[in-house]
Design a protein that fits this description.
three-stranded parallel β-sheet; 166 residues
Length: 166
Amino acid sequence: MKILRDDSGFVIRGERFVSYQEVQCFRYLQWLGLAPEEMNHEYQVGRCSFDFFPRSKIFWEHHPIYIRSGEDLFQYGKRRRLILNAFGYSGVPLVVSDVMFKDQWEVCDFMNDYDVDFKRGRVKGDPRICFVRNYEWEYDSSHYIDSYKEAATLEFPFATPLLWDY
């Protein structure tokens, strides 16, 4: 599959994607056996567009938002859910992901971990919204080691213990 890049994103088979992350999502859906017309890329709901609406059964918004803009993924997902509800899609699941996927195989791993089935339009747990996140980076020990090293270089004055102050 040939991926072309221009000033406004990526192009695959005439379909335009704003990010390489969306390309990985497209490649994953294609690997599942969905034809481009079944993916409903940039599906319009009111004034908003959703990244994918595979087989018109499940919405998928993929944006590594927090990394890019500091926006809270959960608030973003809830706003998108309200938009869908307002336009009559209250019974249709919404998947909101912010993982920086390396390739479509990593997308596959995460969707399997969260039991997301784009072919049937099902998610495990709350059928209204499913957040797909990579919590591993939050618990990466290197973050703690760096914090420890930084704290070790700071000067803290010794305080007299309050217990013994009379």
